[in-house]
Write a structure and sequence with these properties.
This protein is an alpha/beta fold and about 425 residues long. About 55% of the residues lie in helices and about 5% in strands.
């Protein structure tokens, strides 16, 4: 079993990706962005390997406008060596990579131009994975598309257009139930006709349930039957609804008690779970540590080192409670640890706690700071104390100073990223 996250790696400085507008998509700009984005992908893969994360969704935007005529670069040749190097790293580590073409990649549109563009986009994604050297167990996920007033007919259009796809695309493609149009029952019907694997999405199923009432675990089991040996381990998507957000909005973090309840109900643990959540790899590590019997006191201590200044910025009492909990090396309880972290996440901003944490972090930095940096910190802090705004500017300044001094202990702190 693997638990993974999608596209963006939070808190890893060299893993940031960049985009450009179509108006700025010159050959020179595209070439520079592809080079930088491949380096960022390489850094993300290194991070995943170091953290034991073996499932990862690669961003569609590594090659900007990869399926658009504005990008005339033969990127698969020009950057072939770098792509092969990254792919080898993925393969050698046992990691599984996926890609997920976006909402405009619609195979069953009534507009032939939209369908043609969808085919171009699928070709781009497939070529990217082919050049990485990844086999067909590394998949591309697609939604069925629109209903256009007649779901049955629109499903038939999807089937017809799917059958026209090149074999290498069909070998990678898997389909997913969505939150508005096609239920898991609908998608399974398409799957039976095309013999294409189905990805079960738990949140989409809650928002757009099938007529047949089956528990989540039942749908997971049924979807498993669509996966053949050549497709690899069954893959599902897991997310939680953001409190107060619009229907389908992903939560900022995965709340661990709810996840563990879902995980424990899965009968066959030989499954890959892709998390869709705003804090990405942060929740991924949380879920890995909480579901693994191999999680050690050292693992939680390393997590605490990353969380501690954030927790301090929300609540000194929770900070002390977690420190006390971690002293008991004989009774490791990852779920209890992360529930305490979540209590801090859910707390409203408290000016006194934020000032205390900022001053604590500053204490590790200020001795080697320039006078101008010291003046700026004091000015930003005074403004926050007086007016209650500018907290982000304080954190940005502290992070900038930590990076300049190469203090990895602070650079890796979630204090700057949550």
């Amino acid at each position: 079993m693997a638990i993974g996250y999608a596209c963006i790696t939070i808190g890893v400085q060299d893993a940031k990706q960049a985009r450009c507008t179509i108006g700025n998509a010159t050959e020179d700009n595209l070439r520079r962005l592809i080079k930088d984005n491949l380096n960022a992908l390489d850094a993300a893969i290194d991070y995943n390997i170091a953290m034991g994360i073996s499932l990862f969704r690669i961003s569609s935007d590594i090659v900007p406008f990869g399926s658009h005529p504005v990008n005339k670069l033969l990127w698969w040749e020009e950057f072939g060596e770098k792509l092969a190097q990254i792919g080898k790293k993925v393969i050698d580590s046992g990691m599984r990579a996926t890609m997920h073409p976006g909402q405009y990649t619609v195979l069953n549109s009534k507009n032939s131009e939209v369908v043609d563009n969808a085919l171009l986009d699928l070709k781009y994604h497939c070529k990217f994975m082919d050049v990485l050297g990844l086999d067909e167990k590394n998949k591309m996920i697609l939604h069925v598309g629109g209903v256009y007033g007649d779901k049955k007919n629109s499903a038939e259009v999807f089937k017809s257009n799917y059958l026209r796809l090149p074999d290498n695309i069909k070998g990678r493609l898997i389909i997913e139930n969505d939150d508005k149009n096609y239920t898991v029952e609908d998608v399974l019907g398409i799957s039976r006709a095309l013999e294409v694997p189905v990805v079960f999405d738990n949140l989409h199923n809650k928002l757009n349930p099938s007529l047949e009432t089956i528990p989540e675990q039942g749908w997971v089991d049924i979807c498993r039957s669509t996966w053949k040996q050549k497709d690899g381990v069954q893959k599902i998507h897991y997310s939680q609804q953001k409190a107060g957000g619009t229907a389908g909005s992903h939560s900022d973090t995965i709340y661990i008690e709810e996840f563990i309840k879902f995980y424990n109900n899965i009968r066959d643990k030989n499954i890959d779970i892709m998390l869709e959540v705003k804090d990405k790899n942060i929740s991924c590590i949380k879920c890995i540590n909480s579901s693994s019997s191999k999680t050690s006191a050292k693992d939680l201590e390393e997590e605490w080192a990353r969380y501690k200044y954030f927790v301090l910025s929300r609540s000194a009492s929770i900070y002390s409670e977690i420190r006390e909990q971690l002293k008991d090396k004989e009774n490791i309880d990852a779920v209890r640890f992360y529930k305490k972290i979540e209590q801090a996440i859910d707390k409203a901003e408290d000016k006194g706690a934020e000032v205390n944490a900022a001053q604590h972090v500053w204490g590790y930095i200020n001795k080697n700071c320039k006078e101008a940096e010291k003046r700026r910190f004091n000015k930003l802090l005074a403004s926050y104390i007086d007016k209650g705004d500018g907290l982000k500017s304080i954190k940005n300044h502290l992070l900038k100073c930590a990076i300049e001094q190469d203090i990895s202990y602070l650079i890796n702190s979630y204090y700057f990223y949550i």
